[in-house]
Amino acid sequence: MLxxxxxxxxLGSFHCVGMCGPIAFMLPLDxxxxxxxxxxxxxxxxxxxxxxxxxGLFFGFIGKSLNIFGxxxxxxxxxxxxxxxxxxxxxxxxxxxxxxxxxxxxxxKVKNALGKELKKKTPDTFLTxxxxxxxxxxxxxxxxxxxxxxxxxxAESSMYVLFFGLGTIPLMTVVVYVGNLFKGNWIRxxxxxxxxxxxxxxxLLFVLRGMGLGIPYVSPKQSTEIISSSFDCF
Length: 234
Prior knowledge:
mainly alpha; elongated
């Protein structure tokens, strides 16, 4: 499952270039000192990974709570179906029923905080910018969060979103160094088309996982604990 999270982040990073790229380009990096620039950029990525880990941890608690009530299999199937539907349903229809509007005020505060941090050049600035960047709304992060809930384990959920973040690092780093190399690039366009296909595959994987078909690593059977009611009396 962690491999799927990394690949989702890797493919999704082509989308991230358009969404988070402007923030990365605006980082107050020291372009004259390459070692210092690398260190500053690493702090930025570390901040994003920290935010993703916290997000995964939070939703892992939710998934764990549902798992306690024996809902893990049904939840895994439901999350998988939801991921597939979000890809198949036309975007205009999704925008019509946008349930994220109530959190726009909170997002605006994050953006304001980002704006203030971008004016600074202290080492902690890059960590803070990355951390705040990680909480900005992103469709692919939502997909990673859905998967994290379905895992039903706090540690696995946190690691899943963390590995998603790790997958975004290579391209985001390259873009900072080479500028708008991927802007309008046909490779980026083709990979963006492949992202929905991969999301559907992950959705199908979670559906199979929830069905408990006894397929190792893909759809393992749910273990049932048999408690004996007989006791020996001495």
